[in-house]
Amino acid sequence: MGRPRVKVIDTAIDLDKMEKAEDKVLEVSLEADKKIERQAKALRESTKKKDKKASTRSKNYQDQIATIDKTKEHPISEAIDIIKKVSSTKFDASIEVHVNLNTDPTKSDQLIRRSINLPHSIGKKLRVLIFGGDSKELKSIGVEIGTESTLTKIEGGKVDVDKVVATPEWMPKLTKVAKILGPKGLMPNPKTGTVTTEPEKIAKDLQSGMIDLKTERAAVIHTTIGKVSTSNENLEENLKKLVEEIRKSKPESLKKQLIKSVFITSTMSPSVKIDLSSL
């Protein structure tokens, strides 16, 4: 009689294990269902937000889009005309250019970072801070002169300038504010011409049409070439110079064509694609 009793116990243990396993499977299944439901809900919310954003576009913006053929590439002069016509801001909007590249932004040897001088001013008065140089001449140009007290203000988080320039002698002192200036793209760098023995010349260049070329994470160079009030001829010359200098900066490791596409836009307006053969 003892042996059958053992078998009954074994069977009970096995059934108990099976029930626990079934419960575990059911628990996993329920958790999976919940996860799928959460993902579906997130997708619905995301779609609602996109639909809401699209529906909040102003009628004026919708009218602007309707006048632009997104499938067409426009010659440079025609593209500038279109952008000026669709720009409807009450202020003098900036004319911006987005140059899409075939580079890999994760490869350091394919990053482009330098400064160039455009033929004409971009119409923006830059706030320039310069450490070193002839203070009297720099003040006449209209720039701020950097001092030891300026460094103290920067250490405290006060940075209210568009560009920082320094002579080589000042660079050791600026290392203590590198963590503040670096993330803002303001740390002087020889590659961009902001570390120089001729700060007076750089100050004049910055005020007349000097801009930075810098590859962004999405392999794009984005910059301003002027204002809506800038003449078409000046905008065209600035854009052609910009593209020319970007082409000169083609990384040696890149075997294919550097520029993929070029778009022009103005503040708060749709973009227009430019025919590369016209640049």
Any overview of this molecule?
The chain has 279 residues and is α/β, with parallel strands linked by helices. The protein has 3 domains: 1-56; 74-122 and 210-279, Ribosomal protein L1/L10, rRNA-binding domain (Ribulose 1,5 Bisphosphate Carboxylase/Oxygenase, 2-Layer Sandwich), CATH 3.30.190; 123-208, Ribosomal protein L1/L10, domain II (Rossmann fold, 3-Layer(aba) Sandwich), CATH 3.40.50.790. Helices cover 44% and strands 16% of the residues. The protein has helices at residues 2-55, 59-66, 76-86, 135-141, 148-155, 171-174, 178-181, 199-208, 232-248, and strands spanning 94-101, 113-117, 128-131, 144-145, 163-166, 210-214, 220-227, 259-266, 272-273. Strands 7-1-8-9 form a 4-stranded antiparallel sheet, covered by helices on one side. Strands 4-3-5 form a 3-stranded parallel sheet, covered by helices on one side. Strand 8 and strand 9 form a beta hairpin. Helix 3 crosses helix 9 (232-248). It starts with a helix and ends in a 6-residue tail after the last strand.
Identify the overall geometry.
Answer: extended
Strand content: 15-25%
**End-to-end distance:** 99 Å
For the report, how would you describe the main beta sheet? Answer: 4 strands, antiparallel
